Amino acid sequence: MIDNRPPATTFIWSAFSVVFLLAGIGLLGWHRAVSHARGGETCDVPARDPMRNVRVTPSMRATAKYFWVLLALFLVQILFGAISAHYQVEGQLFYGYPMAEILPYSITRTWHTQLAVLWIATAWLGTGLYMAPAISGYEPKFQALGVNVLWICLLIIVVGAFAGQWLAVMQRLGLEHNFWFGHQGWEYADIGRFWQWFLFIGLLLWLILVGRALWPALLVKNESRSIVALFFLSTVAIGLFYGAGLMWNEHTHLSMVEYWRWWLVHLWVEGFFEVFATAVVAFLFTRLGLVAVKPATSAVLFATIVFMAGGVIGTLHHLYFAGTPTSVLALGASFSALEVVPLAYIGFEAYEHWRFCGATPWMQRYKWPVLFFIAVSFWNLVGAGLFGFLINPPLSLYYMQGLNLTPLHGHTALFGVYGMLGIGLVLFCLRGMMPELVWNEKILSISFWCFNVGLAMMALFTLLPLGTLQLLAAINEGYWYARSEQFMQQPIVDLLVWMRVPGDTVFSIGALAFAWFVVSLWLRPRRQPHEVEQEDRELEAGPAKRAA
Fold first, then answer.
1. CB of 144 within 8 A of CB of 62?
2. pLDDT at residue 13 greater than cutoff 50
């Protein structure tokens, strides 16, 4: 981008995007005020935890293996992220050791980004397979076998795809096999085409397993049918839309590949993951009896319409400079601004979740899943909303794309939203899978706060200031200079990269604490056999105490 200048249209539509954002926030505020004034359907909180009546089936217990794999993928992802960040300081070395001879930067960064999507997707897989029989109360024949087969396929895909990528980067695979079994070179769609097809077939198998277990609940004509259908439709979208990554070939033009790749990254990850998250969380609260089904269904439908209305056309903000006409720039700028609108009111959702913690004594059993859902709301606003809109307008993206303000949005949105949600869903499933166990509240507290504080330190100590310095350099000197060796070797840049160590350390402590918590449920379980009776006595004594 030497001697290039942003065209006038980038200024115009960047300004309009801010106008659309303010207008959208105003309209949504009016809608919320009207809805609040009308009042909602009240819900009598159950005296006992409704999920205690759910029979844990063999297939539901088999999902525990997914959560073990999730932990392994998550920890390895953090390791490769630390190595990739360190390469910015020592180049090809890792504290003096020539690590790049074995694990070059192109591999560590590829695995770091790919593992993020894989472990979060594994959380979705495990949650869907656990929740489907819990919702319907029906265990289809050979369901546990299907869950186990899918788990084995997941292991084969991860090991095979990553081995192929390493062989490709190390020049041991050959160009004739690289596209199908090696490294495609497209971020978030790096794995070879054979492994992409394998993963897509696995997602279809997951969709079939979830669908056949949910089907009896979809046939029952009651008030829960609509929200169950929304949950299933979000499952269908996740299963099918990964197919967008199969729409290009080895020699497809760059512009066409970028178009379909952003279907995968933006619509599959950011769009339908968001819909799945909204549907799952709303459904869980309805199953717990904390929210009436009808308003919950309306809320999910409204959120889905708003998210997808902005999200589908808003995908075009990734294609501003991919050889597209001005109309694409205009639509992408306008509708991507609308994606941020629902996030401006995410605090209301966080408050509602927090209020549920004190709704009844037995809700303390779900304290930590709910707290992680609250963290999702916070990072949805900050990571997806504020930092996302920071780089979305055309003028901003002209200077910022590929600078450290992009991973600022990526880290805080991907882990802050979907990572936190995945952990919350894992905790919810584990609570239902082993209801008799007493949880180690202290280690969960360490994990929760280390995740949030570490992520904030990572963003504020390194990514935001370094990205801002790069932005100033791109505006004053040119984009080429902001990414040049001359700029990146400055003492201030070295300092900011080293400043990432405290945040990474705190975050890693949180990951290790969470891993130990999960592992200890099997290695060092603490059982409380009479928990149900004690809970009943407390509930029976409660009204008497209040009357006294």
1. yes
2. yes
